Amino acid sequence: MSDGILLSVADGLARVTFDRPASLNAMDFPMARRWREIAHEVTSDSSVGAVILDANGPAFCAGGDVVAMATTGSSGREVTETAEAIHDGIRTFVEAPLPMVAAVQGAVAGGGLGLMLSADYVVASEKARFVSRYANIGLTPDLGVSTLLPAAIGQRRALQLLLQDRMIDPAEALEWGLVAEVVASGDLETRVDEIARFWLDGATAAFGQATRLVRLGAGRTFADNLDDEAATIGAAFDTPEAKARVAAFAAASAKGRS
Predict the structure, then answer these.
(1) Exposure of 219 by Cβ count < 10 A (0-12 exposed, 13-18 middle, 19+ buried)?
(2) Rounded distance, CA 154 to CA 72, Å?
(3) Burial class for 255, CB neighbours closer than 10 Å (0-12, 13-18, 19+)
(4) Strands 167-168, 129-131: parallel, antiparallel or unpaired by DSSP?
(5) What are phi and psi of 104, to 5 degrees?
(6) What is the pLDDT, as a whole number, of residue 1?
(7) Up-side HSE of residue 8: CA atoms within 13 Å toward CB?
(8) Could you read off the pLDDT of 16-60 as tens digits, one per residue?
(9) For the whole prediction, is pTM greater than 0.85?
(10) Is 54 within 8 Å of 192 (Cβ atoms)?
(11) For residues 27 and 34, what is the distance between their CA atoms, to the nearest angstrom?
(12) Distance in angstroms between the alpha carbons of the first and the last residue of the chain
């Protein structure tokens, strides 16, 4: 059973696919638990150098499955437990030295924004749409939205989405910095594969450490960030990957000066 999320790993690339299209890929508890399991599995697999996060169906993710919560008589405690499972997965991906690109083919709502922003690079199709809708149903942000959204687009714009019934299209999402690129829907898969392949064919470990440093930096002191940067670049300098690239760079520079 996929429990609403598919995982495949091949040639250093992990592909995580939301797969509850009939429910707009909204997360119920089994899907939340599966997300957490996949996050730990992927980030502990030393063969994985990059991750693609995508979705099947018309929507990328509608956040938590509010319809299921309402119709099954879920309690607040059960909602919290579901959120906590998803949060564990988000935190695991965000803190890992592993770059992730999200392919957003359709609508993103509520907590889906947080799941999308757990990726380091977001590519949206021309058919994507972005909306909060928390206040419409009397709920508050979850799945990292209160932190990841303002980090991506700024506090004021984040509040515009959270405090209004406002939907933004891909062009505005690109202008705001919510997504990195917008492509034609037919080109989305190809473009995301290109990005992941660039990471895998390049300085894979360095890309991963760069994402980790940037993601963790906002929650630490400047001094702690500087200490981490110094230790990380020193460790990177001693790797075979970096030694070969540094030597090639030095040789090319010397040739250019001669």
Answers:
(1) exposed
(2) 37
(3) exposed
(4) antiparallel
(5) -105, 105
(6) 53
(7) 8
(8) 999 999 999 999 999 999 999 999 999 999 999 999 999 999 999
(9) yes
(10) yes
(11) 10
(12) 63
